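Problem 12. The chain below contains 751 residues. Write out its predicted structure in token notation.
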Amino acid sequence: MLSKKAGAVWLGLLLVAAVFVLVGFVGAPVAASAATADDVPPESCATCHSGAGDKHQASYDQLYQDGVIQVTDMAYTFTAPDTTTVTFNMTKNGMPFDARQADSFGLYFTPYEGGNFQFDPPLERLSILGDLSYDGAGGNTSTLVGDVPDLTDTAGIIVLYGTDEIVGQLPARVRQGKYPFAGLLETGAGVDYVSPANDAGCVSCHTDPYLKHGYIYAQVDGDPGTDFYTCKACHLDNGEGGHFEWQLLVDDPALAAAVLAGETELTPEQQEQYAYRTTLMNDVHMSHAMEFPYPQSMANCVTCHAGKLDTTLSDENFTVETCKSCHPVTGSEEHGTAELSLTSILAASDHDEEDLAAGDCTNCHETGSKAPGLSEIHTGYDKAIYTADGVRYSDVISVTIDSATFDGTTLDVAFSAGQSQEIEGVDATTILPSIMVGLYGWDTKDFAIGPHERLFDDNGDGTIDGSDQRTLEYVVGEEHPRFTTVAADGGAWEVTADLSTWTDMIADGTVKRVEIAIMPELFDANEVQLALNAPSRTFDLGENAFVDDFYAPIAKATDGCNNCHDALATTFHSPDRGGNVVVCRMCHITKSGGSHLEMQSRSIDSYVHAIHSFQAFDIGDIDFSDPVAAMHYEHHIEFPYPTHGTDCESCHLEGTYNVPDQDKSLAGILSASDEVTGWDRNIGSVPSYVTGPASRACGGCHRAELINEDEFSKLISFNQHTKNGGYLVEAGEDPLSTWDMVVQAIMGIFN
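Solution.
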């Protein structure tokens, strides 16, 4: 597998490994059979790592610092016969700066005519960087003697960009620098280009400021009028694209694997078939639709084109090139990419004579004409999240938990739906709600009884399995042994939950509070399930009252998850789970191993950390002898998190990402390693463990890195390190019993 720069954590792990050598550590999977409560000491991680999360964030905050280096007073002159001179001033932290000291520096020219940035005849790009000189007071000069024409009267832009103090580089050609800089200078008659996309759209998911490749400003000096000017230095409107693998990944994955492995080359005919221009549209659309694990629908154009959809979706852009930038042409039935291919979605009777390699769709398609225009086919909004005119469903439709009472055995909950404006074909009173009740344990933020788990042989067949009901999760109106629908009318519901099974836990104080959540399932007239927020409230059983502020929030949904996903769970699970990470936690509890993620917990912290470290799902189901499967795995584990893994505040509230407090979070079960097929990897058999909150949560990222790198020795060292600073108990044949024993031992210290 490819190597990835892992960061400073490896230095610490190497030191730990050295200690193990000195004390006679045996390099084998850590195991503890028939463990007892006496074998479960509390975690001591916070002793040495109390501010580890703060340090992660501080290291990230050192990167991409906006405006520290300033570029001003750019000027251009040409001296016949062949001398190009560009002068400019630079400061760093207000002090004069020598451009020769920058770790990266580029200077390019791009001509502009008729709305296009391009050369005639085409060029790949034109660097005008010459020898740099410095006057000692911030004045810098680039002098190039060579075959570059006089640009004085040529309309275009001179683009200057770079960064200083590069501290690392990610695999996807992303430089991690501290101080990016950029400058623009228009030449000739200037440039009147207005991008149909917004830099702010990139910032939603990526760094702020957004920096292509980690060092190229997409917007200069905070001016939206310059959006993507710098990108045009390379992404020319008539350049020849070279990333044929993008289209191959969705049209012919087997050929993509062979090409990327260097086993074959495309024929001239194939290169012509997949030829494309290096426009920003093509490069951004293709990479996000065909290569990246983009976390929302490509039809949600508003993410990048907010306020400009009328321009973006105008019929003049309705060309085959536009369609091919997002859609495969043929797709692959075998690999599941054919459904949205052009050959699948275009009616054969109307398009059988059309050339999908080229063409102007407006010969037939135009708003108000016989065939629908581009904006009539694509509104620019994800149909699950927005109406056709951009109203977010979750802003208009909401469910509230209105009241709850507990009589010692039965919890009575009333909740209702509201709709603040009429939407054609959508009626909040037709919501089909599911209610979940989770029982918090030992005053922690985790659940002793998770609503989504199955704990009862409800059908009496002698086995607890998928045919039995969820413990405390209920679709209102259906049959359930622990729930009853009292009333359901006109968008208001009343439900009772039987908690009598847990009266002893409630009586002895193990369970004092519950979380009540509603998942509102609603479809529009076209049977599209709509993205709505799932509300939840914390209820104190003893006080018989809501205690909404008892648990301080840790993660952000609206301004965290939704920055990239726009509406949580629309591209995984179902759209009725949005807006609330607490509801995610009600299924993602610490009592289960990560079924899709080896050596992780189902707990939301472990799960989300591993996913965003790009650990692959279900590695045991991958046949690595299949070149396509192996290629997709390799691509997945090499993707960097868009703002990088140390940017804890992209998901967390400030100050909530340090080592978890073990008297406020329960132990977690880690799944065992998977057996893999077709790859003799280094990682061997690792059993399922029960481990502490810090090992589980922080380990979500660190174990994922080690798994992706196939670093078995370091993985063992990490596990041993967490065991030495806490506990790592083999889960054995009955993981829940082991988990219960561990929890009783640890929580007995604090309660």
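Discussion. The CA atoms of residues 53 and 319 lie 49 Å apart. Students who got a different answer should revisit the alignment rule from Section 12.3.
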